[in-house]
Amino acid sequence: MKRILLLNKISNIASNILKEKGYDVEEINQLNPDVLKEKIKDIHVIGIRSKTNLTKEILENANKLLAIGHFCIGTDQTDLDCANRLGIPVFNSPYENTRSVAELVIGYMIMLSRKIGDKNNEMHNGFWNKTSNNCNELREKTLGIVGYGSIGTQLSQLADIMGMKVIFYDIVPKLRYNNAKRVNTFNELLAKSDFVSFHVPITNLTKNMINKNNIMMMKKGSYLINASRGKVIDIEIVSEALKKGHLGGAAFDVYPEEPTKNTKHFINCLQNCPNTILTPHMGGSTEEAQIGIGIDVANKIINYIEYGTTLGSVNFPEVNLPVSGRTRFVNIHKNEPGSLKSINNILKGINISNQVLSTHKDIGFTIIELDTNLKDDILNKINSLECTISTRIL
């Protein structure tokens, strides 16, 4: 029986789907790295969200691990290169919470432009301070979107409906939606935008995209929003710009350092900055999004375990074969010349009905269907090949 460990309060719908397939599912809120390193030895599939990091040290201790499920968009919590080298596909859900994040950003923009956060605090402290100074509508303001992917495009369409002008910057050519316009440089986007919203992964190119060298390129009185990854922005620099009045406000849902569990002692330099909204990494935390993510990732895991389908994997070749009822096995091998030939030499004399191969970085992945059962001695010979990482009969 396959053992599955789900961490970080993943939607119950995911565990129910997996249990219905007969898997042994254990749900735990959080494990510290040392405990996880030991526990993962006997786990076939692990599901995580943003609070858990699967480092090289942890993954290399995962002797039985078949797959990793990220029940979220981001996958930077896992050492993807290490997982690839070990023959472990990583699945995520890149679309199910896009609406949740996009709606939150729209809410941020409305609240920032009307100074709602500060007014709310004043009212709770008994201070009635009605004013229209520096309070504006979103209509005809310019939204600059950094990263025009699944969330960026959703946000673009919602902003367009609200009458905003939308510009975007992305290093990959993208189809623009509605009246959105692409700008050629990041600095051009900063200079033209009333609101700048980030929707990029963390990479060497995106780390500290907002820093001391470009913060002053933003319009005086403009607003900065980050609902992507915490290390995309140097928050110390933003804190200074807010206190000095160069920025009109900011909203952050992610931070360079985040607690691994709920706490009453979170300290951050953005706290008490004027017109600054801080939320606890809740962009995708709606019931609708978590249900959709749970269904999406759980089914990707099942399709991989049962049929060898790797569609939707972020670090693996994407391979699929229609189910035929024949004997099917999958082989993960080093991406080296002659690997598939070595496997097929062992299968000489056995009729191969279907075979599909694809490679990605360090590994090759093949699904093979046979007209007869695969005998143990044949399987052992394939597993003993120097190129083989793992072989599994489905």
**CATH homology superfamily name of the largest domain:** NAD(P)-binding Rossmann-like Domain
* Secondary-structure element pattern, one letter each: EHEHEHEHEHHEHEEHEEHEEHEHEEHE
Considering DSSP H and I runs of 4 or more, what fraction of the residues is helical?
25-40%
Order of strands across the main sheet:
8-7-6-9-10-11-12
Which structural class fits the helix and strand makeup?
alpha/beta
What is the averaged pLDDT score?
95
Question: What would your notes on this structure say?
Answer:
The chain has twelve helices and 16 strands. It has 394 residues and is α/β, with parallel strands linked by helices. The protein folds into three domains: 1-94 and 286-316, NAD(P)-binding Rossmann-like Domain (Rossmann fold, 3-Layer(aba) Sandwich), CATH 3.40.50; 98-278, 3-Layer(aba) Sandwich (Rossmann fold), CATH 3.40.50; 319-394, 2-Layer Sandwich (Alpha-Beta Plaits), CATH 3.30.70.260. It has a seven-stranded parallel beta sheet with strand order 8-7-6-9-10-11-12, with helices on both faces. Strands 2-1-3-4-5 form a five-stranded parallel beta sheet. Helix 5 crosses helix 7. The longest helix is centred in the last third of the chain and has 21 residues, at 287-307. The relative contact order is 0.12. The mean pLDDT is 95.
